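User: For a reading group we're discussing how well predicted structures match intuition. Take Endoplasmic reticulum transmembrane protein. Before you show the prediction, I'll give you the sequence so everyone sees exactly what went in.
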Amino acid sequence: MIQLLFLVIFAEGVLAFLLLVKIGPLRDLVIKSLDQLKMGKGPATVKTIAGTMSVILLSSLMSIVKIQNKGAKLGTMSPMDQVLWRTHLLEASLMGAFMFLSSGLFASLLTGLVLIIYTS
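Assistant: Thanks. Here is the predicted 3D structure of Endoplasmic reticulum transmembrane protein, as structure tokens, for the group to look at:
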């Protein structure tokens, strides 16, 4: 799961880079594919994925809190609890970054950048 999240964040970074750099055919292809994603079944798919990711993120956050409470109750955390805690923390932070980058704020930022680039 963590490798998949790293791959998705890397892909979002590449997409943002392709929108910012003036590489003619690649940038046009990216813009056309984003336009196609906005039409048809794209929004429903994005909402479904966002809902699923939100549930998984909440599950990771609840696991983090449970492990912390267990450690506070016992006075110390076992090495296994520490590994689980760090894994859940990494997973939750990657999902949070993914959801932030794919949110409407990032999309509107990119749309504004594309409009600025096209008008200049």
